[in-house]
């Protein structure tokens, strides 16, 4: 008898990471159909997808290897903070690197 996938199982979380990534990437894709203000290229979608997938998989790795504790929380917050800082830099260039989108 096969066991059902539970909310906490690794396979379900990987599928959830992929589904959330696709959902987030569909927002600018849909917006591009209705307005000319959103102009993403294939490079933009690839970069955003890689950033979201790598963040999701890094979080999955931490969840699998560190069961509980303060260290797990600190690492998860650090991963999310890195995601937001990189996303902001690529979007508007808050640090002025050559990778900035503005």
Care to describe what's here?
- By secondary structure, the protein is mainly α.
- Helices cover 71% and strands 0% of the residues.
- Helix 1 runs antiparallel to helix 2 and helix 2 runs antiparallel to helix 3.
- The chain is flat.
- The model has no long low-confidence stretch (mean pLDDT 88).
Class derived from helix and strand content: mainly alpha
Query: Number of helical runs?
Result: 3
Shape: flat
Count of discrete domains: 1
User: What share of residues is helical?
Assistant: over 70%
For the record, give the distance between the C-alpha atoms at the N and C termini, rounded to a whole number.
56 Å
Overall residue-averaged pLDDT value = 88
Radius of gyration: 17 Å
Strand content: under 5%
Per DSSP E runs of 2 or more residues, the count of β-strands stands at 0
* Major beta sheet summary: none
Could you state the order of secondary-structure elements as H and E? HHH
Low-confidence runs (pLDDT<50, min 5 residues)? none
How is this structure best summarized?
This protein is an all-alpha fold and 102 residues long. It has helices at residues 10-34, 42-65, 70-92. Keywords: Membrane, Transmembrane, Transmembrane helix.
Would you spell out the secondary-structure blueprint of this structure?
Layout (H helix, E strand, L loop, with lengths): L9 H25 L7 H24 L4 H23 L10
Q: Keywords for this structure?
A:
transmembrane; membrane; transmembrane helix; 102 residues; 3 helices; mainly alpha
């Amino acid at each position: 008898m096969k066991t059902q996938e539970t909310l906490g199982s690794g396979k379900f979380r990987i599928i959830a990471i992929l589904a959330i990534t696709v959902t987030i990437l569909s927002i600018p894709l849909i917006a591009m159909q209705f307005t000319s203000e959103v102009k993403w290229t294939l490079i933009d979608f690839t970069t955003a997808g890689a950033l979201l997938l790598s963040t999701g998989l890094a979080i999955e790795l931490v969840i699998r290897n560190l069961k509980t504790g303060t260290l797990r929380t600190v690492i998860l917050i650090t991963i999310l903070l890195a995601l937001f800082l990189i996303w902001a830099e690529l979007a508007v260039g808050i640090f002025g690197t050559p990778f900035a989108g503005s």
